[in-house]
Amino acid sequence: MLQRIQTIFLAITIVGMGIFLAFPIWSKVSVSGEQHADLTAIRLNHQVNAVQSQVQPAYYLIILAILVAGIAAYAIFQFRNRVLQSALCAVNSILMTIIMGLVIYFTFYKTAKLFDPQTPGNYEMGFYGLVAAMLANVFANRFIRKDEREVQQSKRFR
């Protein structure tokens, strides 16, 4: 049934991944103010000066985020098969962990060498959308397993 609480959490996962795709994930400005770097789901942009910039594509972040949102949307409609729904949430957890690892790799290792290694940068709205999606996915999986336990207990009582 679609009115269960895990449907709401899976919908929050989809919205969180949409926020991850739509907003910047991380940004950093040099102390002098000349250079700045921005990480979005599409690319890592390092603006060296007013004319020169370096762009590194990060298309795999888009692909993974769309895949996570798609799996969450599919899991919403698998309410009759809670075991499959739980497995889909587990796959989403793995994919979101990979996304988080890639974001941390970009923010700490790729950009630390660009300029001002002592300043870490700021996480933006897209990062918090990813965190919200991860938490919502964990809660959805928890409530799916809770429903499955209740169904198994009711079958045992019959």
Structural features, described:
The protein has 158 residues and is of the alpha+beta class. The chain contains four helices and five strands, in the order αββββααβα. The chain has helices spanning 5-22, 59-76, 82-110, 125-157, and strands spanning 26-29, 36-39, 43-47, 53-57, 122-123. It has a five-stranded antiparallel β-sheet. A hairpin with a 6-residue loop joins strand 1 and strand 2. The model has no long low-confidence stretch (mean pLDDT 88).
Biggest sheet character:
5 strands, antiparallel
Strand order of the largest sheet: 4-3-2-1-5
Overall residue-averaged pLDDT value: 88
Low-confidence stretches: none
**Structural class given helices, strands, pairing?**
alpha+beta
Q: How many strands?
A: 5
Distance between the termini: 22 Å
How many individual helices? 4
Topology order in helix (H) and strand (E) letters: HEEEEHHEH
Strand content: 5-15%
